[in-house]
Amino acid sequence: MEITIIHKQDNIVHFLVERIDVAFANALRRTMLTRLPSMAIDEVLVLENTSVMYDEMLAHRLGLIPLVTDLESYNLPEECDCEGKGCSLCQCTLTLEETAGDDEDRIVNASNLTSQDPKIVPASGDIPLVKLAPGQRLIIEAYARLGRGMENAKFQSVSTVSYKYVPIVEVNKEKCNQCGDCVDMCSKNILRIEDDTISTQNTLDCSLCEACVDVCEPGAITIDTKKDSFLFKVESTGALTPEEIVEKSSEILKERIRLALDYANSL
Fold it and tell me: What CATH code is carried by the domain that includes residue 124?
């Protein structure tokens, strides 16, 4: 297996994986979605809430805030020595105490949460929680823990993870009449007219829609795919970096494959 980084931003990475089959590609995607642990608020103690929002709705909003996750410092509750009862090794406490002035409204954001661990903080502090009217007050104590996406979507560290086959776009110059219709039809700007001939560019951006094939003469343009190469797009919620998501998911998948082989050999 070979991995090549195509494009990387703060929370998004595009990479090419070669010499794998579609089963492995899908297993890697599913591992990122459902098996990779991430931190999220799981229990909320509402001490005081005079806002218009119900306690249950407020707790739901808190649970969906992506939290920056430190996988090295925390254990999954089922793997912790406290047996899931909650301790400093598997749980992090966040508090919130906000009061609106007597003559002003106040918007409470995720940045108003105070964490006992400076490393476990909201990935974005601009997420709004509730708007307090003048004189309203909110006091909350929340408990975050590690969990997996297979348990609840709030534990997913990816907002988007997808893959596609690597496109192969070829122009048959003998059958192409250089009318340019395919260039106008392609929304990804894969085709261009250069020196009175149709050529290709940025073929990795091709969406495989085959609109250019339909508008051209039969056989003028052919679109195929590499069956052992896949383009991945991974977008993080901010809980983990894209690099951590890919690396940790690969380790988890490798361990699951090893366990499956050990079980098969024991039969």
Answer: 2.170.120.12
